[in-house]
């Protein structure tokens, strides 16, 4: 039998000064043990069902990657850093490898570049499908969510055949990729999968993206304007939903992207619906890019640079210097800043996850005045990924 | 049978009140007050047997005027309700009132209300009406000037409307007794009749708190002694209901004849019913949005009276019976509720929901009473609230009046809504630390609540008791069945059987429950908080704006407020008066109440 | 009243066939939960479903590494669950820190703080491996060896000591009060 | 006396069993729409046994326990009043208004229990549940009014009899409109999308249910099963012509299927949107039905 | 002349105290004294560097200095700018003025830098607010190079000494 009065008495006996309650509002802990936040916590001050104040509380996934990376050799870090972004682990691999490539002065062979591009695009598609699943679950249309997760499994199987792993591929390494494309059959399977998913897009439209209720739920929720977005360092689809046609693949082209033909979907409204629809259109564009890449076919040549230094891999050293590489991930602009002091381990690695901009200040400001039912929607529409805040 | 019981019944409270006020010694004034409130109740109960055979009348001649009083079935029904609730309220007041002033005016208003129900001519009706209004006005005045002024102004408005109506009636009939009027009203012209109808509507609508004349009620109900509010809502508002029935008695047949029928009901009745429907919806919705416990119940009282108006308005024998039944249940559960509120306010000193919470643990008896009251008001079957509501549903829907039916359905749901808000904010959840020493209800309040709660249950399980009485009032057997069964022919309700099966169901559920493992008590901080630890410093209860979504949904409608409209009207009248003063009087002027009064007097004279 | 031990096999069968999972993705393994719940692996075949409320959940899937900040929430959530409850540690990290063996902010041995019934090795374990682990825990439930919750009760002092050593005494209040200054400020 | 007790017991067992099967059907059909296999049909029974057999339970006070017991008891009570072929026992008193009220009461019990836990999520859930109740009440009321006016009686049993003589209710235009409105209301009663606002797992973590565990939740499962059975039964009786137990079962499953299919393809409304929705289209449809029926 | 050089020249005209150079295509670099950083960032913002991508702290232990790299991105030119400045790495001297009024998002990055490195940004009222690190590590600034991370880890988690500390050779 523990009653409230006893609790208070106990606290008083222990010399605790209980602060008076803030009776106009109440506190609501949103996460981490909540279906809408994956290991991320928002502390909400609520009035009725409206949010008065939101405080993001990150750090549940902090493992100190940047510290750990300073104590691991250059190549081993690949296996570590990719864990920063769980839904698309190829992105940290790619940016880290590109930065190291720059430091080494390597020209990555064309075939490797092609494979990296394909992997990145597959990662984008799978990440968008994963996001669609999340959106479906949060909006309550579980059917769309289940379908999306099921289609993502096809890509997972392809990844598995290509890299040997389902989630953490450890595939893109400095100087190229870890192994070659298994066979032509794999390429055909990829082509089939792309066709298949493209075919199924209209199902998602019917159930989710063109659904009347979805529009009602997301319209006018969490509106950002262009200036706000730029000031707050918003990138990726979230920025494009405010009317800025910004895409790293166009602005700072890397890998095969200069040779590919694709559009940047831009919407002006800047609300949750616009952000969702931009992602939906990008999914289509990514499938189109994959089609183009497959039509092009893999260029012949090596899949990895031929460098004598790679023979002494454990003691492999990188010349002193610094490099920044970034790619367009589904969440936004994903960048890696790598500093080398010429040793066998990096001197400093900083990964810039897009969510650090989206998930803290932007979220806190967009949530003010939102209904409790909008909180998961805003969270999902920002595409917040907690591990890249926490690192 | 030497002394006529009527003056005793009517005047006992007033005399007791004067004595209490004069003596004004703590202890004695309470005893005098309670006894003087108990006399009418006891006498009325005693007269029950006699009334089934005959009526009792009483005439008083004073300077040429004759005051007629009649104790008949309908009046007895209302007077008993009033005496019962009044007695419970007075019992509660022994705990909550502080001085003789309150005893005087509370008992005076009880006298007024009893006089209204027993009066049999227009003059005495009006005089007691005014005594009642005056007593209650003084009760409000002591607590809040502004609220009392609003109450006073609207009551004045209603009173003058009534006066004009009586004047017109008298001018064309030449008789002031009810019996004479109802006969003579046949001679009225159509337009005069319409005017009288409208004026009566205003007069009784104000007292019953019908939309859009309800604006005084929330302020007046909340800004007075809380025990007295039980009488205010349980007894005084019934005077308005009684007035609506008077419309039927006085001019009903002529109105029906002149204005014709709307479907199966009369046109004029339909207007009353429609006003009642709007009252249900508006009162209920506003009740759900209140942040003050007293206001919530004030609006709830308004909303529940809307049912009665619907019943009266539909005008069939069944619906009138249903309305009378609901009048009784309204008095029972509303009186109980206001006593509960009185207890809460008395014990905690807080009136706003945001300051309360978790009181069920501290005030178990009051909570048990509240539980009964909640179930009754929400219309949960074996209680009296359901029986009367059910009758009303059947009465209205069987008359093929779908829109009114819709109002009633909405009303029953909105009842759930605001009651849950009350329950959540007051009884459950986290308790602020300053309420840790709250005690349970004082004995007189507990007894008063107990009486009303018991009647809620008894009349709920045996609705036939009331139905029999109602049948005898109307003089025909509308509701068949026995003690436990209400049988309307097209619908049947068996309260006893239902109670038995509910008990069986609960027993089955209880068996399942007790077969499971033992339970362990956990505190409010040991709950799901998304995995986070919390202390008592976090506010874990939605204390304010519980129904904010509803408020937002209704944002468009809430922008219109009759309260503000009246204030604006009042202000413009005031402005007009300012102008007048500037140009015409230049004399001293007290308050705009007087302006309005003068204007109305002029109007009244013109009407005479 | 009734000797419920007679029905224990039935109860164990029901417990085994109806494992509700706490929806708490503690680490990267959370990414494999959706595939497990959807059409390729479909755990609902075995009566499992994720449940947002710990009060009615049975199985706590620790999906990956655990940081102290998360571990506090895990312990609180675990204690909210009614007995019998089961813990399935997913991946190498809860076993021995895995790839984060030298990280200052990742738990090395989860079973020092809460009892673990079944651990699945691998980084990250494939869904098949998770399903294998679940099959194992189902077997253990059926023959009554999944007794982590009993161990937690019996050795509560030991677990509490370990928790207090890691977080410091009175960590619940401390953690709860951590945000108060920032919440009360207007 | 004994016969009544026996029949009541049989009805109870049958309703509970079929209710659990309905819950299983909901899960299986939903799974098939998701392109999954889904659980076995008896899964809800296993869930309930598991929940009831939990070895530790918590409580937040007397009301926390009593609310649940009351909810289950009231559901059983409601069940007894609904005609079930020839074997129901209280159908003579099966008044439309009474049953409509009785079907709402369990919710009040659950809300009482949920709120007494003092959890803010439960508070939010109660807020949403009550507003949903308020929202559905208007179309529901008009649908009931239409029925009562059309048949001129409030007795469910007599309505069933009248349908067996004059064809199902939904073949008459006013009642067809009422049936549409009532079906939309049923969606909220079942707690299916787009009106599962009250529990919304992704938003408020099951809302009122968040604190229930062990036997409390087990009893709620039983309550849910019986309520599911009773609600579908009521619909099948008043709109789909009633019939023998077997016929009723088929009709009930049909009602259920519609709810599942609608639920599978719509996202969840927010509570204010749901209220506005209910007060617009279903109300208009049902009111039209009621007015047509009253002419 | 490439667009990068034009930008560098334009900025340097307004900020003569800074040094600037073009690192490579779409990467430019400036070195600015710590006390002029606010001025300089304002100039950068006027020159269409709309967005701040991150603030990186590099701990140059042997120099006894922190290098703060403010990384800006211009959507107009598609150019990434590193604005570097150096401050002493002692705890009491590692103070910087905040730039959150110029780039609001910097507030988050500054909290991050404070949590892990102990750089105090004056004017940022959220500096003391709990960020990623838990109570135990707050104030230890674990990402500084002189933080005994392995020893701390072993002490904190009581891990046995079976991991070889000197093992700096790993195989992929």
Properties at a glance:
heteropentamer, C: 186 residues, mainly alpha, Rossmann fold, three-stranded parallel beta sheet, two-stranded parallel ribbon, 10% strand, E: 172 residues, alpha/beta, Beta Polymerase, domain 2, five-stranded mixed beta sheet, 4 helices
Structure description:
- The complex is a heteropentamer of chains A (391), B (608), C (186), D (295) and E (172).
- By secondary structure, chain B is mainly alpha-helical.
- Helix content of chain B is 72%, strand content 4%.
- Chain B folds into 3 domains: 1-211, no CATH class; 260-560, no CATH class; 563-607, no CATH class.
- Chain B is built from 23 helices and 7 strands.
- In chain B, the strands form 3 sheets. A two-stranded antiparallel ribbon of chain B has the order 1-2. In chain B, strands 3-4 form a two-stranded antiparallel sheet. Chain B has a two-stranded antiparallel ribbon with strand order 5-6.
- In chain B, a hairpin with a 2-residue loop joins strand 3 (261-262) and strand 4.
- Chain C has 186 residues and is mainly alpha-helical.
- Chain C has a single domain (7-184), classed as Rossmann fold (3-Layer(aba) Sandwich).
- In chain C, 58% of the residues are buried.
- Chain C contains 9 helices and 5 strands; from the N terminus they run H-E-H-E-E-H-E-H-E-H-H-H-H-H.
- In chain C, helix 1 runs antiparallel to helix 5.
- In chain C, helix 2 links the parallel strand 1 (20-22) and strand 2 (49-51).
- Chain E is 25% helix and 27% strand.
- In chain E, the strands form 2 sheets. Chain E has a 5-stranded mixed beta sheet.
- In chain E, helix 3 (106-117) links the parallel strand 6 (95-97) and strand 7 (120-122).
- The relative contact order of chain E is 0.12.
- Chains in contact: A-B, A-C, A-D, A-E, B-C, B-D, C-D, C-E.
- At the B-D interface, helix 15, helix 16, strand 6, helix 19 and strand 7 of B face strand 1, helix 3, helix 4, helix 5 and helix 9 of D.
- Strand 7 of chain B pairs parallel with strand 1 of chain D, so a sheet runs across the interface.
